[in-house]
What we know:
Organism: Selenomonas bovis
EC number: 4.2.1.59
Strand content: 35-45%
GO molecular function, one term: (3R)-hydroxyacyl-[acyl-carrier-protein] dehydratase activity
Oligomer: single chain
Number of strands: 6
Shape: globular
GO cellular component, one term: membrane
Strand order of the largest sheet: 1-2-4-5-6-3
CATH topology: Thiol Ester Dehydrase, Chain A
Enzyme class: lyase
Number of domains: 1
Low-confidence stretches: none
Amino acid sequence: xxxxxxxxxxxxxxxxxxxxxxxxxxxxxxxxxxxxxxxxxxxxxxxxxxxxxxxxxxxxxxxxxxxxxxxxxxxxxxxxxxxxxxxxxxxxxxxxxxxxxxxxxxxxxxxxxxxxxxxxxxxxxxxxxxxxxxxxxxxxxxxxxx
Length: 146
């Protein structure tokens, strides 16, 4: 199953410029998702990171990866209207820079869930090259009850 940007925006509360998933190319609800983010020079962070040598900030790579996991977590109808909040990040590794023209492909899977808390692992790739990986602790909350 694939999800386009309009379907993603029905699931995630994020909106541009903080919506960092362009398409979900594979999803197994509440288990895993694979999504893409096309990196373009038109994005605002490249005006200052870094002029003449644009590199996607690591924090935005992590956010894009977490959002793909968020789609997997929030896809089931009973989770719609909730927000997946960061509880922490562990084992964060950056292997290679991500630059305009790249397509960041994130493979995220839910490791465990206990109630409204859980652990998500995500790997980010450009082509066949692993560029980043991380474990994300999360809490699911009602969007109007943060």
